[in-house]
Structure formats: structure tokens, C-alpha cells
Amino acid sequence: MGGIATAVAAISSAALVILLADPLDSTVIAAGRVLVTALVMSLIAGSTLIVPWRAAARDPAVRWQMLLAACLLALHFAAWIASLTMTTVIRSVTLVATQPLFAALIGRWLGDRAPWQSYAAGAVAVLGTSVMFVGQGGGLASGLAGGQAVPANLGDALALVAAVAAAGYLAVGRSLRDRLPLPAYLGVIHLWAAAILVVVVLVRNAPWVPPGAQWSDLAAVVYLGLVPGVVGHGLLNWAVRWAPVHVVSLAVVVEPVAAAALAVVVLGGSVSVWEVAGAAVVLAAVALGAWRPRPDSTG
After folding, report:
1. Which of 54, 58, 73, 295 has the fewest CB atoms within 10 Å, measured from its CB?
2. In degrees rounded to 5, what are phi and psi of residue 59?
3. Containing domain of residue 280, as a range?
4. pLDDT digits (tens, 9 = 90+) for 9-63
5. Residue 153 lies in a domain
6. Does residue 295 lie in a domain region?
7. What span, in angstroms and rounded, lies between the C-alpha atoms of 237 and 115?
8. Burial class (CB in 10 A: 0-12, 13-18, 19+), 296
9. Residues 133-162, mean pLDDT to the nearest whole number
10. Number of Cβ within a 10 Å radius of residue 143
């Protein structure tokens, strides 16, 4: 359980650090974060890094599957990091935490059997989201993107897009993760995703180091790739090999609470009663969707 707790603490710090790197464009932060994770995972993979490349070269189906996984991973980070500049921390992190619910729906579409609580959880999550949207004011984010005011609902929508993209990424790569060495697979997919995000930055003509940026902002990007990226998600991938998946999924539900609390303490600001109430309902829905009854061993 110590590994899971460390992982949750690591990923919970991501939202705060992203906001602290505010002078940098959101796509630059996304590209930098994914690239740092890619480089470290590639070093960890060592000589096994060649295995995914060979598999992609030999089998077109594997190649396209890996490319789709990389595109979805890039979309996840680009959408979620952008959402943090457009809506409040608690709403952004709570909505992106609905990923397990979308994963259940995608799994059902792919032919997996979805338990009854997945549908009940989806209905509860819709209710909780509606409650969060009752209070549109206040919050921990400025509602600015590129220095211009934007509707908070755009940030909320981007957080949901990020959740769907993350669920799709896991679904697409499910079989590949079982067939390829995990560090090598993660290293290659993150390298491809980083390349995609670099192209997006170039197309948008976003400055890599804008005026006013400090070394601390660049250090924040490195932190994001190392701590939430390598330590946080690495430990979660390790944890699912030793603990039931539903236990790991339930632990991740703590992330929005910890992320919002960190933002309040460090950045100041407040959260509305409606946001807290709605987030509680949404996270309860995620917990319901992730919960699985323990098999009866008394048989």
C-alpha cells in the first residue's frame, strides 16, 4: 500500500505544478512533460527498448495500434493541461478522474462484459457533474488561456476529452502491454506522443520559452515528467501486478481531493460549495464503477 500512496501523492501534485509553470504555453508543458517521461522510461528499458520498434516494423497492425495509443496519450495531456488554464482545479481534476467510467464504456463496446455498477456509476457521475456546474463562479483557476478570458465550460469539456482519451489509450494498448516489456512499451509510446505534441507546438507557433519565463518554470516541466510521469504512473503500473486493479483505481479517486487541497494551500483561492458537493458525487460514482465484490471463497 505504500507504493500506491506514493503514486497518488506524486500524481496529485501535477495540477499545482502545471499552474506554477503558467508562463509556458499548455502545449509546451504537455510536450515537455511527455518527452521527459519518454527519455527516462527509455533509459529504464535499456536494451529491451528495441522490442516495440521491431514489433512495429514487422506487424502493421501493431504499428497502427501503437500510433493510435500515442495519439490518444498526446491528446490526453494536451487537453487536460489546457483545461487547467480555463476552469477550476477541482472541476478539471475531478472530470479527468472519470476515466474509469469511460474505460468501462469503451470496454463494453469492445466486447467486454460491463457489470451493473458501471451503468449506475455513469448515471451518478452525470448527476454530480450537473451539481458542480450549478456554481459557475469562484474557483482556483483564473479562467484565462493565453491571457484571454475563456468560458469555464470549455475547460470542463477539455477535461472530459482528456478522460476519454486516457481511457481510449489504455484500451488500445491493453494487449500490447501484455506482449511487450512495459518500460520499453511506455518509452516508445511516450516518444511518439512527444513527437506529436512537438508538431502541435510548431503548428501553433507557440514560444518554447516565452518572455517572463523563469528557470523554475522549466524545472516544473522536468518535475512533471519525472514525479507524476515516471514515479506516479510507474508505481501504479507496478501496483496493479501486486494489488487488485479495483484497489488501485479506488486509490486514484483520492487525487482530485489532494490536488484541490494543494492548490488552495499554495495558491490561495477557494472552492464553491456546489463544486465540492458535485465533486464528491462524481468521485463516489468513480469509486462505485471501480468497485468489484470480493469472490466468495467459502464456496
Report:
1. 295
2. -120, 110
3. 2-290
4. 888 888 888 988 878 899 999 999 999 999 999 999 999 999 989 988 898 888 8
5. yes
6. no
7. 23
8. exposed
9. 63
10. 18
